[in-house]
Specification:
Number of strands: 19
Structural class: mainly beta
Order of helices and strands: HEEEEEEEEEEEEEEEEEHEEH
Number of helices: 3
Largest sheet: 6 strands, mixed
Number of domains: 3
Distance between the termini: 110 Å
Strand order of the largest sheet: 3-11-10-5-6-7
Length: about 280
C-alpha cells in the first residue's frame, strides 16, 4: 500500500514539473494557477480564471484531494462565500471578480500536498460544469542556498579547478532540486560539468565543476563561479570568485626568443657599455 502511494506521488511530481504552475483549460474555465511546490508554514496563492460573459456563474468551488474547502455562489446573497476549515491549511479569499477568484493558502502542513481543483458551473439552464486541477507538493523543510565545496582562495595557472555544489539538506523523499553552474553569469560549458555521487550506485547528490585554471587566466585571472539551485519557481544561488595567480612571464621573455634560442639582452647591454667607455678613454 505504501509503495503504491509513493509511486502515485512520484507520478504527480513528474506531472507537476511538466505542467508548471498553470493549467490552461476550456471555454468557461480559462486558467487555473497553482504553484508546483510550496513549503510547510508558508503561503501561496491559487487562482481560477473563467469567462462567463455568454452566461452567468452559478458557483465556483475549490477542492483539495476532492474535498471541498471553498464555495462561491453569487445567488446566495446572505452568504455567497463559504470557506470550510481544515487541519492541513488555512484558506483566505484574496480577490474576487467577474472573471477570477484568487485564494491565499497559509499555515500549510506537508499534508497539504495534493491535487487542487477548481470547479466552475454555469447558470440555468445549461449548468455546464468544467473542472481543472494542478498538483502541488508541500515540503517540510524550506530551501537553503546550495553549498559549494572544494574551492581555494588562489590557484596557479597549471592547477585543475574542481568545485562541488549540492543542496544543504537532502530530502528523505520528494523532489530533488536542479543544480546549474554558471561562469560570469553564463552557463558553464557542458564538458566542465558532471554529476557528483557520494555512492557510485546511488543517485547524484550534486554537480561538479571541473576546469583548467588556465581558462580563468585567459579571462583576466578572476572569474565568478555561481551555482543555481532551482525547485519549481523557487531559486537560490551561491557563488565563489575563482582567482588565478598571474604568471611571472615578464622576465622570461628577456631570456627566451620565440625561436627557442637563448639570448642575454641585459648582459649584451653591459658588454657594449664597457666597450664604449674603453674606446672613449683610449
Amino acid at each position: 500500500m505504501a509503495i503504491t502511494r509513493i509511486a502515485v506521488l512520484i507520478v504527480h511530481f513528474i506531472l507537476a514539473l511538466i505542467n508548471g504552475v498553470t493549467c490552461v483549460t476550456g471555454d468557461l474555465l480559462q486558467r487555473v494557477e497553482v504553484p508546483s511546490f510550496a513549503f510547510a508554514g508558508g503561503r501561496v496563492n491559487v487562482s481560477c480564471m473563467f469567462d462567463l460573459r455568454d452566461t452567468g456563474l452559478y458557483s465556483l468551488k475549490w477542492y483539495h484531494n476532492d474535498t471541498e474547502f471553498y464555495r462561491y455562489v453569487p445567488t446566495e446573497t446572505h452568504r455567497p462565500v463559504d470557506i470550510k476549515p481544515t487541519m492541513k491549511f488555512q484558506a483566505h479569499e484574496v480577490s474576487r471578480s467577474e472573471t477570477q477568484v484568487t485564494l491565499s493558502i497559509t499555515s500549510m502542513t506537508s499534508a497539504a500536498t495534493g491535487e487542487y481543483k477548481c470547479e466552475v458551473i454555469a447558470e440555468h439552464p445549461s449548468f455546464r460544469t468544467e473542472t481543472r486541477s494542478v498538483f502541488m507538493v508541500v515540503l517540510d523543510e524550506p530551501l537553503a542556498p546550495p553549498v559549494i565545496t572544494g574551492a581555494r582562495d588562489m590557484y596557479e595557472s597549471h592547477d585543475d579547478i574542481k568545485l562541488r555544489c549540492q543542496p544543504e539538506n537532502f530530502p528523505a523523499s520528494g523532489p530533488t532540486p536542479a543544480l546549474t553552474w554558471f561562469l560570469q553569469g553564463r552557463p558553464a560549458r557542458r564538458e566542465y560539468v558532471s554529476p557528483y555521487r557520494d555512492d557510485p550506485y546511488a543517485e547524484p547528490t550534486g554537480v561538479t565543476l571541473h576546469m583548467p585554471a588556465s581558462q580563468v587566466s585567459r579571462g583576466g585571472g578572476s572569474v565568478e563561479a555561481e551555482c543555481l539551485l532551482k525547485l519549481g519557481t523557487h531559486e537560490l544561488r551561491s557563488s565563489w570568485t575563482l582567482r588565478v595567480r598571474p604568471r611571472p612571464s615578464s622576465y622570461l621573455s628577456n631570456y627566451f626568443s620565440t625561436a627557442g634560442v637563448t639570448t642575454y639582452p641585459a648582459y649584451s647591454v653591459v658588454v657594449c657599455s664597457i666597450i664604449a667607455l674603453t674606446w672613449l678613454n683610449s
